[in-house]
Amino acid sequence: MLFSRLGSYPQAWLDEALFRGELMEYWAHEACFLPRRDFKLIRHRMLSPEKMGWKYRAAWMHEHAEGIEQLVRHIQEHGPVRSADFEHAQKGVSGWWEWKPHKRHLEGLFTAGKVMVVERRNFQRVYDLTRRMMPHWGNVRQACLAPCVAAGK
Predict the structure, then answer these.
(1) Given this model, what pLDDT does residue 91 score?
(2) What's the pLDDT at 19?
(3) Burial class of residue 125 in the structure, from the number of CB atoms within 10 Å of its CB (0-12 exposed, 13-18 middle, 19+ buried)
(4) Is position 23 within any domain?
(5) pLDDT at 67
(6) Which residue from 5, 52, 83, 147 could staple onto 103, CB 3.0 to 4.6 Å apart?
(7) Is 93 a member of any domain?
(8) Range of the domain at 85
(9) What is the pLDDT of residue 129?
(10) Would 133 be classed as within a structural domain?
């Protein structure tokens, strides 16, 4: 998306903007980079990930809740991770889109706003806990709706 809007840009610029917290990655129409100050504009999507279609599978998240919780604890204790940091014994044969469980876990957590992309390494997302990156934002829907309620809408 950036290339289509900006043309050629230095990769270091994107890396630095992510590192400094100026940009964040999330789903607009597709995955894209947004100013982090716009977090409040998309937070409602994170709080209702089941409305995000193929990007979030509630059944998967429920079925794998224990493994997902272990992954969250791992990130809490050891810091940011990539899906490539985790081995998976069974390699699929269908190629590109056959994600291993940790990748699915991370993408579900990403869509639900539990983790954020803090950098990219060779196009691979590096995830950290949203509560660490945006500590002033809780998971309470009311925080997102407060301005509308105050305006009487």
Answers:
(1) 61
(2) 86
(3) buried
(4) no
(5) 94
(6) 83
(7) yes
(8) 40-150
(9) 97
(10) yes
The rounded distance, in Å, linking the Cα atoms of 77 and 72 is: 9
Residue with tokens 């903007």: 17
pLDDT tens digits for 7-43?
777 888 888 998 898 998 898 777 888 899 999 888 8
| Token pair for 84 | 């490539």
Instruction: Count other C-beta atoms under 10 Å from residue 83's C-beta.
Output: 20
What residues in the chain have per-residue pLDDT under 70? 1-5, 89-98, 138-153
Let me know if residue 122 belongs to a domain.
yes
- Interior/surface letters 96-110, b for 16+ CB within 10 angstroms, e for the rest: eeeebbbbbbbbbbb
Beta strand residue intervals within the chain, DSSP E: 23-27, 31-35, 115-121, 124-129
Q: How far apart are CA 11 and CA 61, in angstroms?
A: 33
Question: What single DSSP character describes residue 89?
Answer: S
Q: Total domain count for the chain?
A: 1
Which pairs count as long-range contacts for 58-62, CB under 8 Å and 24+ apart, including other chains?
A: 60/104, 60/108, 61/108, 61/112
The structure's pTM equals 0.76
